[in-house]
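seq as requested:
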Amino acid sequence: MNTSRIAFVLIALNGLIALGFGLLGLAYPQETAESVSLEPQNAFGFGEIRALYGGMWAAMGLLLLGSLRPLATQPHSPHTERVRTIGLCWLGLPLGRGLGAVMQGTEGGPTIAFLLAEVVMVVTLLTGLTLLQRART
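struct tokens:
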């Protein structure tokens, strides 16, 4: 498999995962909240779960998936910066989670699992983008 193909697979995989997380957050806000130890108290709380864990993740997934064709056909596409921005924003997830673990401690399993998954997503997305840029130079 050539470098460009690997790059596109990594970016697409991240897009699909983010979209999947988002759709779950939109469709199942109670279960999503429980998975991260949150307890929405009213309609506003469920709206926040849908917005942050549903809408935002679904939008990022769609943005990544929507960037695939322009990245393939336009070497200097502004979509490159879109992908990079999403990856750098995702970097805040494990950094914030890690800071929380240092400041408040951790309950082990869930914190470590989410942190590792977030690191993998950031690394694979930014690696995909880097591979794509190297393949074009």
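The two ends are 18 Å apart (CA to CA).
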